[in-house]
Amino acid sequence: MNDVLDRLSELLEQRKSADPASSYVAKLYAKGMDSILKKIGEEATETVIAAKGGNKEEIVYETADLWFHTLVMLAKADLKPADVLAELARREGLSADCIFCKIVKGDIPSKKIYEDEDVIVFHDIHPITKVHFLLVPKVHIESMASCELQHQALLGKILLLAPQLAKEQGLKGFRTMINTGREGGQEVFHMHVHVFGGGETLPRI
After folding, report:
1. In whole angstroms, what is the distance from residue 184 CA to residue 190 CA?
2. What span, in angstroms and rounded, lies between the C-alpha atoms of 151 and 118?
3. Is 192 annotated as catalytic?
4. Which entry of 69, 132, 140, 192 is annotated as an active-site residue?
């Protein structure tokens, strides 16, 4: 499917500089974004009507029209299908009812100290020492026991980040902890690594 989207995207990009009289898409571009959005609204309505009717051929046909005009809108906004696919890929690993996934999406605030494309790091809301933060993979992995070979690089990245961030938080020494499963003390079932320290002694486990 990506090949089809890429070819369409390239064609739509070419139409931006075309004579409005030469093609339907070039004419849409010339009319501006409002006209494109109006057309998307019309196609969305027709798609809904087709879906209500239940005819599969009509649903596919109208959906194709809707997708096409959405691609025109993306091109007009200087965006590509790959930008949308990247966002879908980001969402793929998220769980709707997981508190950490909600933090990843920005639905719940956190005292964030680090973030990249794979990991988010924030202070624990119930710290047990002066410094206590959590390293959380953005993809939803239920626990350490759920990790597979595909997560090897991600796990390594998290462990390398731990001492770097601990140092930035002023820790000369620290403890890492990964609770796994209910019997292992895990409370939020989205794998995470605790890093804590500060003070002369650490809490006994």
Report:
1. 14
2. 11
3. yes
4. 192
When computed from its CA atoms, the radius of gyration of the chain, rounded to whole angstroms, is: 24
Count CB neighbours of 96 within 10 A: 9
| 189: its two tokens | 């079932």
Per residue in 104-132, pLDDT (tens digit) is 999 999 999 999 999 999 999 999 999 99
Top-confidence residue, 97 or 52: 52
* Sign of the CA dihedral with 128 first, then 143, 186, and 190 last: positive
Centre a 10 Å sphere on the Cβ of residue 77 and count the other Cβ atoms it contains: 11
Taking the C-alpha atoms of residue 123 and residue 132, their distance in angstroms, rounded to an integer, is 6
Residues 195, 122: contact at Cβ < 8 Å? no
Nearest to 15 by CA among 82, 77, 76, 66: 76
- Indicate whether this model's pTM tops 0.70: no
